[in-house]
Amino acid sequence: MSSGEHFNVILVGAGISGLGIAHHIQEQCPAKGFVILEEKDTFGGTWDTFKYPGIRSDSDLYTFGYRFKPWTGAPVADGEYILSYLGDVIDEDKLDDKIRYNHKITGANWCSQAKRWTIDIFHKDTGENSQLTCDFFIWSGGYYDHNQGYTPNWAGLSDFKGDVIHPQFWSEDTDLSGKQVIVIGSGATAATVIPNIADDCEHVTMLQRSPTYFWTGENKNELADRLRLLEVPDNCVHEIVRRDLLQTQKEIQHASAQYPEYMKQEFLKGVREHVGDEITKQHFTPSYKPWQQRVAYVPDCDLFNAINDGKVSVVTNHIERFTENGIQLQSGEILEADVVITATGFNAIPIGGIPYTVDGKTLNPADAFTYRGIMISGFPNFAMMFGYLRTSWTMRVDLVADYICRLLNHMDQQQHKVVTPTLRPQDADMNRNSWIDEDEFNPGYFQRSGHLSPSSGDYEPWRFSPDYYEEKDQMPLFDLNEDALQYQ
After folding, report:
1. Which domain CATH number covers 430?
2. pTM score
3. Which of 105, 313, 384, 451 lies most in the core, judged by the most C-beta atoms within 10 Å?
């Protein structure tokens, strides 16, 4: 194993988190040398991994885009446009020579004597192993497994004679012409795939265990269009529309928390206008409160149009087992299919699922507490990027990057080499709570992986706030000298 260079900062992943934090480090900490380690052979992260038909954002790009990079296209964008946007960031920031592709991280080991991390790397292009060292390690590689999607262990799955496709591993040569297709799932992925394959298939059945909240509208922003007509500069359009959308989202989210039944009826009214009362009641009325899971957006009503055209039918039931020619439901009904698409989600793996050690002793994230959703108790010189789940993920990328840069500059000014979030005596009996309370947000991937994640405590600073509107004012004021941060 060869030993490589040393960097001030190592970032993980050339996706939306890694590239965003890299921009801010380059701008706010210009003396810091850094590198981005990317497992894939190209940039983009999620937007390169997923290639299923119609892949698009489920957030508007005015808030999903960075604050420093104006968005000029349609609010909901296809994956190729998001990749192009990220490519522009790389070009404009001259980040290409900072990215090392085909670098799979296999371990991270902290040495207290040397005050540095040693990062173990497997080179996917050469099959060799190497190491890099850094003063500060930032996990910005997302929170799910890019190598394996989530597929439930259904009875009889191996009996099915047709093709089973997970959207995470969609092949570009997939041909669905004239085939009976079942799409299992009810969220944003299913709602995207279905209208984009419906014209090719004989018929598509959307099979869901339980419904999801949807909202719909034209894929345009009237305020942005008006401002552009007035020849307002792109950066001003981006900021004004971003603020307007965030205020609207804030009002909707807070109303959903305070008046859940009212907001439920508002969401259902929007669906009912397109597919009628019977279908809405039977297939699009969730059992949970609005915003306990992400609300999926249907741009230009494409899913509902496909249902109304008879190209798509919806079935809400539980799977009993697979058969040779389809799926038997618990109701006894049998759905025949040539192809089954499992839009059943992904597997979450906190901070990459790699082994971490301090002086040879294993660090288990599940034994630790989150520090403000940015660092982890007992992990020296370490930060992680976890975004918002109701507001666009990227809104937190900018905030967390600002905090990390402020921390790095503070350490330099005070001549500190190490910072470690550390539980205080008064924290000894603190309860171990879920990363996010299930009453707050409860999608399946959180419930399946909760035991692997750091805990949230009962109070600050040992908790993650999922509320952008709270954090945007608080995070810039977080005290870098508070007693939960131990410096050396």
Report:
1. 3.50.50.60
2. 0.93
3. 384
